[in-house]
């Protein structure tokens, strides 16, 4: 019971199951390296902060700002090496901005559904198993994505989500003390997912999600490693980026 | 050890507890001069503001926000008359289409005003009192203080949980239990004290302005009456409005109505209430807000709201809303009443298509087919391009010759 209460006290800690899949590609989708496609990147969702001793998220504006910049830079650098053109979505206003917001939310909801009901194999919905669909990755945001600002000049849309909570000193001390007593306390949270959407059909072509990512996004080098992990198994990856230490 | 833990729990909340509201012997003090555009300080506050900036970015593009310029300008005007022009400059109000009695404010000055609040308050003074309360939270930077209190509390609990589980003695477990209750209860009490402090601030602004400050107390008395009506329609005993539950987030409504009355400046009778101006500004939105409220399936509260709105006189909109309320509950006795209400709406405003539609459907269901069909035909004539025109024609076909 005390372990249970402890888990409740450390509520911000999510421990993903080991048997979880982390990435999937839509059947038949290929993006050869250097195919010269244009990828539209919508403003990534980035939040970086600390984790208090009790497990609360403590937002940190400075870290978030540098992470946002580092991730943008790393994205550009990485995609250029794949031969795809990465375009940041234009700043939009009025009706356009509302549509972007809705599709960002829709993408987040669909991604959560994929993570819950596709990547956890034992958790698949009946509709996703029937008719030999068990191994099929088939999700869509609908054709209307083509109406997003900037969509006409691009082939694919890339959405990114990133949340980091670095364990505070207090949290690490708690973890250490708990370990002495044989109690498990995790420190820090580093979750992220990235998805590629076909701007003609709205189909989700590829999704990668990881609840325990590496790379310190507050530093330029760490962000390169992080983006490498976020885009792991990205279709058309000529060679996986050399893992940074 | 028990005592030590309890003392530690008490300490966790002692340093920054908001000033308790004094017994309302005197009106709330006038606010200090406003220091101008406040900028966040320290890593926690800057972080919270940046997080609010992100949320506001999403909120500004949300489909739930009502962007009508006239309504927004009016609400901003009431807000500014509540807190004064200098304070008003630091707020960005958003009207959110949610049929709930609430408003909220984030650390960076984003104010969300729910349409359910606009539907319930009856005058500029009442609206101003709620918006002033929300601004009080902002000026006193309550979100930051509560964040810190919660962090102190959960830090303490985490250490206690680890140490308890290492010690393993039954006594330690009991102490931990006590401590957990005392920390969580302390956090809830802290939140209620913040609400009282925001009430005090809100009344200070109102007393300084030109609107009638006693309206603040009336908001809560009306809310109590609405809750009683809601409970009565369900056959429940009415909620206790005078005592707080252990984990309650706000002070009891009865307590608030009492002390808010005491805090109001005593010259209330000479002051402006703004009820007519408010009713005029809200009139174009009433049908939509009432529709949203009726769909909450809270018969007693919805009927209470409609009847109170009808106090100055029934309008076609209100009769139509009451017809909808009864028709959607849908027992045969309700349909008889609904037909009656729609009939009154149609008599007051013969061009109101929705009244004809409701009248027709209610009459057909109660067996008065010919009259009902006439009303439905009238509806289609008034609104040939109605989204449900095909369905209404189907009803006409099923009950007779079609056209």
From TrEMBL, chain B:
GO terms for molecular function: metal ion binding; metalloendopeptidase activity. Residues 1-19 form the signal peptide. GO terms for biological process: proteolysis involved in protein catabolic process. It comes from the Bacteria. GO terms for cellular component: membrane. InterPro entries: Mito/Outer_Membr_Metalloprot, Peptidase_M48, TPR-like_helical_dom_sf. Keywords: Hydrolase, Metal-binding, Metalloprotease, Protease, Signal, Zinc. Its cofactor is Zn(2+). Pfam families: Peptidase_M48. Residues 96-260 form the Peptidase M48 domain. Binds 1 zinc ion per subunit. Belongs to the peptidase M48 family. This is Peptidase M48. It comes from Sphingobium amiense.
């Amino acid at each position: 019971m005390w372990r249970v209460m402890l888990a409740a006290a450390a509520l911000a800690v999510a421990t993903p199951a080991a048997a979880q899949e982390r990435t999937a590609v839509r059947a038949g989708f290929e993006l050869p390296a250097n195919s010269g496609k244009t990828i539209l990147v919508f403003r990534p969702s980035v939040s970086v902060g600390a984790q208090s001793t009790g497990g609360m998220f403590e937002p940190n504006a400075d870290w978030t700002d540098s992470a946002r910049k580092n991730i943008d830079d790393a994205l550009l650098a990485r995609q250029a090496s794949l031969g795809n053109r990465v375009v940041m979505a234009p700043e939009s206003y009025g009706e356009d901005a509302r549509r972007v917001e809705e599709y960002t939310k829709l993408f987040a909801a669909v991604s959560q559904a994929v993570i819950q009901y596709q990547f956890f194999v034992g958790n698949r919905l009946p509709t996703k198993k029937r008719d030999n669909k068990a191994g099929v990755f088939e999700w869509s945001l609908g054709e209307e994505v083509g109406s997003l600002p900037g969509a006409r000049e691009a082939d694919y849309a890339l959405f990114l989500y990133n949340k980091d909570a670095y364990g505070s000193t207090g949290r690490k001390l708690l973890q250490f003390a708990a370990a002495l007593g044989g109690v498990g306390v995790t420190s820090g949270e580093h979750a992220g997912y990235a998805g590629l959407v076909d701007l003609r059909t709205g189909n989700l072509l590829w999704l990668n999600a990881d609840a325990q990512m590496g790379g310190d996004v507050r530093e330029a080098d760490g962000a390169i490693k992080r983006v490498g992990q976020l885009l792991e198994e990205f279709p058309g990856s000529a060679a996986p980026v050399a893992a940074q230490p | 050890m028990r005592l030590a833990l309890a003392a530690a729990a008490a300490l966790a909340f002692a340093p920054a507890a908001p000033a308790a509201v004094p017994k309302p012997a005197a009106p709330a003090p006038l606010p200090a001069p406003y220091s101008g555009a406040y900028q966040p300080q320290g890593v926690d506050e800057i972080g919270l503001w940046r997080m609010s900036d992100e949320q506001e970015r999403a909120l500004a593009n949300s489909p739930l926000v009502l962007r009508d310029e006239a309504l927004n300008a009016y609400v901003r005007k009431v807000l500014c008359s509540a807190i004064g022009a200098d304070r008003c400059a630091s707020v960005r109000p958003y009207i959110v289409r949610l049929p709930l009695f609430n408003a909220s404010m984030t650390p960076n000055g984003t104010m969300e005003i729910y349409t359910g609040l606009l539907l319930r308050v009856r005058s500029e003074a009442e609206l101003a009192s709620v918006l002033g309360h929300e601004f009080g939270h902002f000026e006193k930077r309550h979100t930051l203080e509560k964040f810190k209190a919660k962090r102190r509390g959960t830090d303490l609990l985490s250490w206690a949980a680890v140490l308890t589980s290492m010690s393993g003695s039954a006594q330690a477990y009991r102490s931990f239990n006590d401590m957990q209750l005392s920390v969580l209860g302390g956090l809830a009490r802290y939140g209620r004290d913040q609400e009282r402090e925001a009430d005090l601030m809100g009344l200070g602004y109102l007393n300084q302005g030109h609107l009638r400050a006693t309206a603040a107390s009336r908001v809560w008395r009306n809310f109590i009456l609405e809750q009683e009506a809601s409970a009565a329609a369900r056959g429940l005993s009415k909620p206790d409005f005078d005592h707080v539950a252990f984990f309650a987030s706000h002070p009891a409504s009865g307590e608030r109505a009492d002390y808010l009355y005491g805090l109001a400046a005593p010259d209330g009778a000479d002051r402006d209430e703004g009820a007519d101006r408010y009713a005029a500004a809200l009139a174009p939105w009433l049908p939509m807000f009432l529709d949203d409220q009726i769909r909450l399936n809270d018969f007693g509260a919805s009927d209470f709201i409609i009847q109170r709105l009808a106090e100055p006189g029934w309008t076609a909109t209100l009769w139509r809303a009451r017809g909808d309320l009864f028709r959607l509950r849908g027992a045969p006795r309700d349909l008889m009443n609904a037909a009656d209400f729609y009939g009154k709406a149609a008599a007051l405003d013969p061009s109101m298509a929705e009244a004809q539609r409701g009248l027709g459907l209610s009459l057909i269901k109660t067996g008065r087919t010919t009259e009902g069909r006439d009303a439905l035909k009238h509806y289609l004539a008034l609104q040939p391009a109605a989204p449900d025109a095909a369905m209404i024609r189907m009803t006409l076909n099923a009950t007779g010759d079609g056209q």
